[in-house]
């Protein structure tokens, strides 16, 4: 399971719906209007620091530390999350 490193740090990550390694990171929360524009133009999904941690964990189900180490950089999670054992 992942948890926020710093719950006060704003960010948004725009993921390609078919390949989460294809993503774009913003160090701020993209406005709702901005998210709508992004989502209208391609097959993506958007998650940000305001997204509930349970949603993050549902989207990026990570079973163990080895898996975390394999995906954290590719999915742009390493700056914002840490892995904890359940």
Main attributes of the structure:
single chain; 86 residues; alpha+beta; three-stranded antiparallel sheet; two-stranded antiparallel sheet; 3 helices; 5 strands; 28% helix
Structural class: alpha+beta
Shape: globular
**How many extended strands?**
5
Strand order of the largest sheet: 3-2-4
How many helices? The count is 3
Largest sheet: 3 strands, antiparallel
Give the amount of beta strand, in percent: 15-25%
Number of domains: 1
Q: Spans of 5+ residues with little confidence (pLDDT < 50)? A: none
Relative helix content:
25-40%
Give the overall average pLDDT: 93
Element-level helix/strand string: EEEHEHHE
Write the layout of secondary structure elements.
Blueprint lengths: L1 E3 L7 E5 L6 E4 L5 H10 L2 E5 L4 H7 L5 H7 L9 E3 L3
Antiparallel strand pairs: 1-5, 2-3, 2-4
How would you characterize the overall build of this protein?
The protein is α+β, with helices and mostly antiparallel strands. It is built from three helices and five strands; from the N terminus they run βββαβααβ. A three-stranded antiparallel beta sheet has the order 3-2-4, with helices on one face. β2 and β3 form a beta hairpin. The radius of gyration is 13 Å and the shape is globular. The mean pLDDT is 93.
Concise summary:
The chain is of the alpha+beta class and about 90 residues long.
């Amino acid at each position: 399971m992942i948890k926020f490193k710093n719950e006060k740090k704003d960010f948004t990550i725009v993921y390609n719906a078919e390949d989460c390694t294809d993503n774009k990171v913003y160090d701020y929360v993209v406005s709702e209007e901005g998210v709508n524009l992004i989502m209208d133009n391609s097959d993506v999904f958007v998650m940000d620091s305001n997204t509930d941690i349970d949603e993050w964990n549902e989207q990026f189900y990570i079973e163990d530390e080895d898996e975390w180490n394999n995906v954290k950089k590719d999915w742009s999670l390493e700056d914002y999350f840490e892995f904890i054992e359940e």
